[in-house]
Every structure is written in structure tokens, then in C-alpha cells.
Amino acid sequence: MYLLFAMLIMAVVTYIPRVLPLTLFNKKIQSVYIRSFLHYVPYAVLGAMTFPHVFYSTKHMPYAIIGTLSAIILGYYGKGLLIVAMIAVGVVYGCNILL
Questions:
Q1: What residues make up the domain containing 12?
Q2: How many DSSP H helices and E strands does the chain contain?
């Protein structure tokens, strides 16, 4: 019974932030600044939630830093997400094996 009640509360808490903007903002947002800000919010939140955990994904933080730097360099040169992720993981595994 406690688990069902907890799930119900979690459902309501996650449902309200999704429905509230739809009910409050009926017309299209005209401000270019606000529209561009809202466009990048999901990416910023996802990055803020996941990026710190990258450094604690291995037992050795220097290996995680090397993998992150390789991903940043590959991303800077315009490589695709799948390639960047695979090479970064490969670099971390390689560091664990070789060092």
C-alpha cells in the first residue's frame, strides 16, 4: 500500500511540471530570447545531471578525465555522437588495461 501511494505521489509530482506550462501559456511565445533559452534548457539540464557522473564512472578518475578529453576533442571536430561515445569508452577501457 505504501509503494502504491509513493508511486501516485511521484506521478502527480512529475505530471504537474509537464502540464502547467501548457495550461499557462496558451499563445506562442514571441520573444526570440525566451524561445532560444527554452530551446536549450533540456540539453543544459541533461548535461548538468550526467556530466559530473562521468568522472566517477571508473575507479580511477584520471582515466575518466582522459576519456572525457578525448570525447571533447572528437566532438569539437564534428564527429557523430555514436563515434564519440564509442571512442571515449574505448579510451577509458584502454587506459584500464594498459596503465
A1: 2-98
A2: 4, 0
Q: What is the pTM of this model?
A: 0.62
Residue among 44, 48, 95 at smallest CA distance from 70? 95
**525566451: which residue's cell?**
34
The three grid cell numbers given for residue 22, joined into one nine-digit string: 501548457
Contact indicator for 77, 90 with CB cutoff of 8 Å? no
Longest dimension (CA), the chain: 58
The amino acid present at 55, given as its one-letter code, is F
Count other C-beta atoms under 10 Å from residue 71's C-beta.
21
- In tens, the pLDDT along 18-65 reads 888 778 877 888 889 988 998 899 899 888 999 999 998 888 999 999
Cβ-based neighbours of 95, under 8 Å, separated by 6 or more = 60, 62, 63, 66, 67
What total of structural domains would you count in the chain? 1
Residues 6+ apart with CB under 8 A from 65: 55
**DSSP character at residue 57:** S
